[in-house]
Amino acid sequence: MALNQEYFDAIHIDVVKKKYYNANKVEAVFSDIRRQAEALYAENESMKAQLAAMNGKKFEIGDAVLSAQAIYREIVDKARARAAEIIAQAERQRDEAEEEIRQRQESAVQRVETCYARIKEQHMACIEAINSEWQEFLCGLFPEDAEQSVPPAAEFDSGPEAEPMAAPDDLEDKIGAIAQELFSIGAEDED
Question: CA-CA distances (angstroms) from residue 114 to 108, 109, 111, 117, 122?
Fold first, then answer.
């Protein structure tokens, strides 16, 4: 039972002869009040100790929160610095890769140009060889005895009275045969 207004209102001490109180009952009530007051005092002291401990824990928790916030800020700062470092490294790698790609492209272009120049040179050499063979072939159309029948003075005579060399009789047939052969080669290439 707690020491409160209801407790004290509930105390009924019989009055002896309307003048005196019963001493035993008064002593019993006082000892009960003392016992409850001591219990209340002990409980109050215990609560004070708990309150002091809680206040101490509150300060510890406050310090822990401040420490956690400082650690959080430090972690965030480190993370941001690391992220900036990673981004810078990635940008350097990207720039290096772009430079390497550009150099490879330039190298490839140079190799293609060199190869093209070589092919063009070989192509021109082939054209010259074909021209040379064609000229030899055309020269072969004229019989050697016709060249020998022309006097040496007539070869170098370019005057107005010099007569042109006469073409062999079968020259037209030979040129026609060559044209047909070239036409058939061209038709095969188109197929």
Answer: 10, 8, 5, 5, 12
DSSP 15: E
> Taking a C-beta distance cutoff of 8 angstroms, is the pair 39, 3 a contact?
no
Evaluate whether 168 touches 144 at the Cβ level (below 8 Å): no
Can you give the residue ranges of every domain in the chain? 5-115
b/e per residue, 94-120, with b = 16+ CB within 10 A? Answer: eeeeeeeeeeeeeeeeeeeeeeeeeee
Identify residue 28 by its one-letter amino acid code: A
CA separation for the pair 67, 75 (Å, rounded)? 12
What's the distance, CA 143 to chain centroid? Answer: 77
pLDDT tens digits, residue range 53-78? 998 888 888 889 999 999 999 999 99
Q: What is the pLDDT of residues 74-131, one digit of tens each?
A: 999 999 999 999 999 999 999 999 999 999 999 999 999 999 999 988 888 888 888 8
